Amino acid sequence: MKKASHSKLTQSVHAGSPGDPVHKGMVTPIYPSSAYDYEGVPSFPYPRYFNTPNQKAVAEKIAALENAEDGVIFSSGMAAIMTSLLAIVKKDDHVIFQSDLYGGTQHAIVTELPRFGIHYTFVDASDPSNFEKAIRPETRLIFIETPSNPTLKITDIRSVASIAERHNIVTIIDNTFASPVNQNPIDLGIDIVTHSGTKYIGGHSDICCGAAVASKAFVEKILQKAINTGGSLDAHTCWLVERSLKTIVLRVRQQNQNALTIAQYLQADSRIGKVYYPGLPDHPGHAIAKAQMPGGFGGMLSFEVKTDASQFMRKLKLIQRAVSLGGIESTITSPAETSHAKISAADRAAIGVTDKLLRFSVGIEGAEDLLEDINQALS
Ligand SMILES: *Cc1c(COP(=O)(O)O)cnc(C)c1O
């Protein structure tokens, strides 16, 4: 674990950013070169080696925010996840996944891993001992995601990490929902942290990218796999990601505050059914979330409306219907109609994804305006 020397606010502005050595400008110049002079240098930059100045600036900033030694920036969250996974496991190895994962990750596991001869088990993560029970002699990796989508379940990161450590198993966590501002799993014993940077890291609904951060040794393994799979990010987008990261702490803190205010309001409203938010004291994972999310409980919440859910969504004026999440603007989706549409209604109900459930990605607007919009759509 690398100890942070500065606060997250300072890191978000300064970490990794090399500045402008020629003209002394305040921002990192864009270095679009794909060809560099190799004379007399041990290793030269090349975009698919993930080592150009713009790629390194972003990777170092995200690594700093996650208290990790090093990092890699990718062209998508899925590139970060699949490259990290394939860097650790090979044919005949076994992986334990938490059962409620992001839909794209779930899909990639069941469609791709059997083709590589990699075995896996999905377990209910609400009890960490389920991971220990699923361990086989050939288990190499445990993969978790917390808070989960869309019912914001909390996995006890420290417990899972210590089980894995006892059995010499590598751990990966998808930290997208929490963002590096709220939760730093490396501090809790996790080996590799991945992000869909398309969400809070980009934060403006205009970038697709991903990241993996870890110790230098794990990053080296990921890099070797990444050079073969090739999911690199171009200089212009890296530059935009670096710019976005300078405000991530301010954005996420406002989103945390708005989400908590809205969750508390919704819970007290008789027109609303269940509210899922780890910041609410009666959320089953609240105590663990409080311990492992020191920065805040995040900007994602879900709730059930007692009236017609699609009519409610259509009546919203400020809060927009959109998939994806983590942007500065508030967006809402019906998981039953989008991310979980391919699952049968009965199976959906079993995991709490009813037709009345809505997933809310809370933006940075004024909480009072968001509440007013919800109120008018409910009436
Ligand atoms: C969006 C998302 C991903 C995939 O990221 P892409 O950038 O779309 O490839 C992975 N995990 C979580 C939790 C996500 O929300």
UniProtKB/TrEMBL annotation:
One of its GO terms (molecular function) is pyridoxal phosphate binding. The keyword GTP-binding does not apply. It comes from Ohtaekwangia koreensis. Residues 1-21 are annotated as: Disordered. CDD domains: CGS_like. InterPro entries: Cys/Met-Metab_PyrdxlP-dep_enz, Cys_met_metab_PP, PyrdxlP-dep_Trfase, PyrdxlP-dep_Trfase_major, PyrdxlP-dep_Trfase_small. Belongs to the trans-sulfuration enzymes family. The modification N6-(pyridoxal phosphate)lysine is found at residue 199. SUPFAM superfamilies: PLP-dependent transferases (SSF53383). This is Cystathionine beta-lyase. Transmembrane segments: none annotated. GO terms for cellular component: cytoplasm. PROSITE patterns: CYS_MET_METAB_PP. Its cofactor is pyridoxal 5'-phosphate. Pfam families: Cys_Met_Meta_PP. Keywords: Lyase, Pyridoxal phosphate. One of its GO terms (biological process) is methionine biosynthetic process.
